[in-house]
Amino acid sequence: MAMKLRPETALTFDDVLLVPKRSAIRSRHAVNTRTQLSRSIALAIPVISANMDTVTEAAMALAMARMGGIGVIHRFMTIERQAAEVERVKRAEGFVVEQPHSIAAEATVQAARTELAKYDIGGLLVHDANDEVVGLVTTRDLLFEVNAQRPVREVMTPRAKLVTAAPGGSIDDARATLRNHRLEKLPVFDQEGALHGLITAQDIMKIEQWPHATKDSRGRLRVAAAVGIRPGDLDRAAACVHAGVDALVVDIAHGHSDGALDMVRALKQQFPQIDVVGGNVATAEGVRDMVVAGADAVKVGVGAGSICITRIVTGFGVPQLTAVAECAEAGRALGVPIIADGGIRTSGDITKALAVGASTVMLGSLLAGTDESPGANVVRGGRRYKIVRGMASLTANIDRQAVEAHREVDPEDWERVVPEGVEAMVPVRGPVKDVIYQLVGGLRSGLSYAGAATIAELWEHAEFVRITSAGKHESGAHDVETR
Ligand code: XMP
């Protein structure tokens, strides 16, 4: 039987370089990195943190959304926990704290100080025995109080003297009131006098620190969540939707399968208002079938990830740049953005993935060493590392079975697992904002080399050259002792 072979050679990141083009861009700040995650979700930067249990839970998703990207909360935990992680992100950045901490009017100054320190906050509402709000006590009220046994009632600002806000006001109104009265806290009461929350100057400042944050129509940070394709995953999706999730990601190694397509269809039917990302695929047919099933974005990458051994174990995969190029062409014809997932090691790789047509990139191990990724540091040979593991690795498989069965997995069952991923270590890299700053800075510079002010212009202008191993050697620092 003749071997069926595609005529063209498939390429990946290190096979090519982008050719510099005449540029009218005078500074890398003059480029715009805005893009689409999916049909209806826009991002200020084209970067997504991966749905892996060593990469994205609430802390990472919060940081990613603040910077203008987005995180996908992984699914290797109970439904309740995943929904709680989604909720943590959705509750973080409303400018009104809906359930502020409070203390009894008869409690002591000492107790108030303890509470403020415990929650690391600057003020507490004060309630009476009937749970009515009777005042507000702040660190300033307590600063020079020498009698730690005095009741809070005697040092608080009583309700009658409080400056307050009505529900539904804008962030600008709140800022103006805080400024005019030189205040840090503004309780929100409705006309009947019921408490609706507390506005704090600190929260407003935090919001203003991140002007490009990815937010929904109510001003809350956006977050995505991964689901599998078992019947129970519809319950998982429902819990995440209830918690306020903005997009659902069908997270399957071989996304071009009836099971994944059925799941995309079911999710779109049940939650038509939520964008659904389908994946992973590596061909134009895969993209088309996903879009016909209802996907609002398609994730591309089979075996490209740093911790993947799918290509070794199964013999399947398409080198990532060719896969993304082919899928992006199909995606563009169908009006659906493509996510390039896996294998990205540098900002140059991000520029290349976008240049062949992706709208965003998904990062796994590049972000796994940051402060915001789940897991503790480990020390090896005097250096600090964090763990990153493939979601089809041996230990991830065992842990998943344990979550599903609510018990430890019998060691004898370990031998039945056929892993398609590995567990590895990555160096500790500090706050994710520093890593993203470098990556996006490199991308911005890349856009200017292409003479492109936007990602859409990069798609138009990009031209690649194939390189040899000598060209690759020349590309890195070479023939010098790097320190
Ligand atoms: P990077 O290179 O950014 O890749 O670390 C992250 C992506 O790798 C995929 N992934 C896997 N692929 N076996 C695989 O073949 C695995 O166990 C595995 N775990 C994650 C996934 O697409 C992720 O976003």
Short description:
The chain is an alpha/beta fold and 483 residues long.
Mean pLDDT: 94
Number of helices: 19
Strand order of the largest sheet: 4-5-13-14-15-16-17-18
Number of spatially distinct domains:
2
What can be said about the biggest beta sheet? Answer: 8 strands, parallel, barrel
CATH topology of the largest domain: TIM Barrel
Low-confidence region ranges: none
Oligomer: single chain
The secondary-structure class comes to: alpha/beta
Distance between the termini: 55 Å
Overall 3D shape: globular
Q: What molecules are bound to this protein?
A: xanthosine-5'-monophosphate
The CATH homology group name of the largest domain: Aldolase class I
* CATH classification class of the largest domain: Alpha Beta
**Over all CA atoms, what is the radius of gyration?**
26 Å
Give the helix level as a range of percent.
Answer: 25-40%
Name the CATH architecture of the largest domain: Alpha-Beta Barrel
Hey, roughly how much beta strand do the residues contain? Answer: 15-25%
User: What is the strand tally?
Assistant: 22
